[in-house]
Every structure is written in structure tokens, then in C-alpha cells.
Write a structure and sequence with these properties.
This protein is α/β, with parallel strands linked by helices. The protein is built from seven helices and four strands; from the N terminus they run ααβαβααβαβα. The longest helix is centred in the N-terminal third of the chain and has 13 residues. This is Peptidase S9, prolyl oligopeptidase.
């Protein structure tokens, strides 16, 4: 999604376009790195992230499924129409328009092409867990297989829960596409 203190041009790439978040650059970088590192296998690319990183991880296997094969999305806001105004409006503008729907993983759930684990904490006050549950519902309606880990009493920082870390690691290890 970017880093603080970057240029306006850097941030303009994903303004009203959270489904992109610089994926073209990331994919180009990974391909360039693989060109000089024969041990890198481009058929087994996976990612994980938390919060905005979780939003991006889900986007990877939905919008860039030809490249990313496996993703673990922790505490992600998968539909910014549910997110806090102060966060979404800075990145998506106001009023809510078609760019919100275009960037929503919920409205694109049928495009899931990789393996996905969704993780949410019941008491997350940063990103409403309903965002993850809406994506789960859309994936079920689209007849897409995925894993869901819901942490009772968990907060936005479910990535710090030892069992969640273990489940993330096992998820990557058990899928042939990432071994």
C-alpha cells in the first residue's frame, strides 16, 4: 500500500484503486529477482499480510491469481464500504462511488483462483470482522473453497496469537503449490 513520506505519485497509484496496491511492480520485482536466482520457483508464489496487508493478500489470489497461488489474509478489510471513514476516505475519496465496489474483494469473490485462509478476531476494533465474514459468505455463494480462522476474543492483532501463527505456517506447508 505504500509507506509514509513517499511522493504523491507513489500514492496516486492506489488512490481509488485499492485492489491494485502496486501489484504490477511487486510481480515485476519478483520475476526480475527470479531471473537471477534459479532456486526461485515462480509457480509457487504465496503471500500473507495483516490489516492492509491482509486486504492485499486476499487481493493477490483474487485479482492476480495467475501469479499468486496461496495467501493468508489476517484482519483485512475486504470491502472498504465497511471501513472507518477516516481511513477509507483518504485512500478512496468521498462520496462512496464505483471505485469502492471495484476494489472490494466481496464483489469479486468468484474470481478466487488460489488458496486462501481468512483470519479475523472477534473483538477487532480497527477492522470490523464483518468484513472478513462478508467475504467468507461471498466465497461460499461462489462455491469457492477457503479456510476461515475466527479467533474468539481476538483483536486486530490476531497475527500475534501463537495458534494463528502455527495455522498460517501449516497452511503454507500443506499446499503443494508452496512446498
Amino acid at each position: 500500500m505504500g509507506t509514509n513520506w513517499r511522493s504523491k505519485a507513489f500514492h496516486d497509484v492506489w488512490y481509488k484503486n485499492l485492489k491494485d496496491a502496486g501489484f504490477a511492480d511487486r510481480i515485476a520485482w519478483i520475476r526480475a529477482a527470479a531471473a537471477s536466482r534459479p532456486r526461485m520457483d515462480l509457480s509457487r508464489i504465496g503471500c500473507y499480510g495483516s490489516s492492509v496487508g491482509g486486504q492485499n493478500a486476499a487481493a493477490a489470489v483474487i485479482h492476480h491469481r495467475d501469479f499468486y497461488k496461496v495467501a493468508v489474509a489476517l484482519s483485512g478489510c475486504h470491502d472498504n464500504r465497511l471501513d472507518t471513514l477516516q481511513w477509507s476516505e483518504v485512500r478512496m475519496g468521498y462520496p462512496v462511488d464505483v471505485s469502492y465496489e471495484a476494489s472490494s474483494k466481496v464483489t469479486h469473490a468468484e474470481k478466487l483462483g488460489g488458496l486462501l485462509m481468512l483470519v479475523a478476531g472477534e473483538l477487532d476494533t480497527n477492522v470490523d470482522p464483518a468484513s472478513t465474514l462478508r467475504l467468507a459468505d461471498a466465497l461460499i455463494k461462489a462455491d469457492k473453497e477457503f479456510d476461515l480462522v475466527f479467533v474468539p476474543g481476538g483483536t486486530h492483532y490476531v497475527d500475534e496469537v501463537p495458534l494463528v501463527q502455527k495455522k498460517r505456517d501449516v497452511f503454507f506447508k500443506r499446499h503443494p503449490s508452496t512446498r
